[in-house]
Amino acid sequence: MKVLINKVKNLIKLLSILALITFATTHSNSAESAKLLKTDWSFKGLFGKFDRGALQRGYQVYTEVCASCHSMKYVSYRNLGEKGGPEFTEAEVKAIAASFEVTDGPNADGEMFVRPAKLSDKFVMPYENVKAAQAANGGAYPPDMSVLVKARGGGVDYIYSLLQGYEDAPSGMTLDEGVHYNKYMYGNKIMMSAPLSDDILEYGDGTKATVEQMSKDVTTFLMWAAEPHLESRHQMGFKAIIYLIILTILVYFSMKKIWSRVESEV
Fold first, then answer.
1. Separation CA 41–CA 133 (nearest Å)
2. Residue numbers of the domain that contains 235
3. Are 92 and 144 in contact (CB under 8 A)?
4. 243 lies in a domain?
5. Structural domains counted in the chain
6. 65 in a domain, yes or no?
7. What is the pLDDT of residues 42-84, one digit of tens each?
8. Is residue 257 a part of any domain in this protein?
9. pLDDT tens digits along 70-126
10. Looking at the domain assignment, is residue 7 inside a domain?
């Protein structure tokens, strides 16, 4: 019986620790992004799922606007068709990959050659190396976007806000040449000019391409790139919670039955 009591105590401690961690994380994130813009993210919460339309539109924004400067070196073209992601059809993914060229080799003659990208290839890099990227961007290196939402405080809310935070600098603030004012950027100074403007592209599904809509779509896409297994993780977490609830109920009734015998003997 002592062993069972100890197990119950350990289970209660574990549940308490998990609750405290969840509360602390939620509180920390809310405090950190309190001044950021908020929107309704479909993937938030225990039952959150990615909006397939938003993911596909977000990929379009990345390709047509962001990919000229920002790489996504940890994402492969085949990922675009996998379950839980944008879920393009196989034909669409093959067409997307084939529209890019990659350098491969050496061939039988010892020479490098250019070929259409395959499903297994990573997203094509916009620059050959870091130095080339810095030279093309005034000395600043455009960060890789594969896990960008995880590398910035505020996560998706920060990226979403940053894309909409470009304004004229307040009076009295001097900006160097090539530097822009963004009210959500750390220090309010950013080398990247405003990448989005209304109707800068045309969505294939007819959605109006406003700055707000494009910001939300591309941020959703970046969230998926950083956490491609988010939906399966949510499902696993829900199953784990159900298991713990059932286990707690069983332990409770077991303890109740054991203690009822002890009381009757007394």
1. 32
2. 1-17+230-266
3. no
4. yes
5. 1
6. no
7. 999 888 999 999 999 999 999 999 999 999 999 999 999 999 9
8. yes
9. 999 999 999 999 999 999 999 999 999 999 999 999 998 999 999 999 999 999 999
10. yes
Residue-wise DSSP of the chain: -HHHHHHHHHHHHHHHHHHHHHHHHHHHHHHHTTTS-----TT-STT----HHHHHHHHHHIIIIITTT---TT-BGGGGGSTTTT---HHHHHHHHHTSEEEE---TTS--EEEE--TTSBPPPSSSSHHHHHHHTTT--PPP-TTHHHHSTTHHHHHHHHTT-B-PPPTT----TT-EEBTTSGGGEESSPP---TTSS--TT-----HHHHHHHHHHHHHHHH-TTHHHHHHHHHHHHHHHHHHHHHHHHHHHHHHHHHHHH-
Q: pTM of this prediction?
A: 0.77
**What is the residue type of 2?**
K
Question: For residue 226, is pLDDT > 90?
Answer: yes
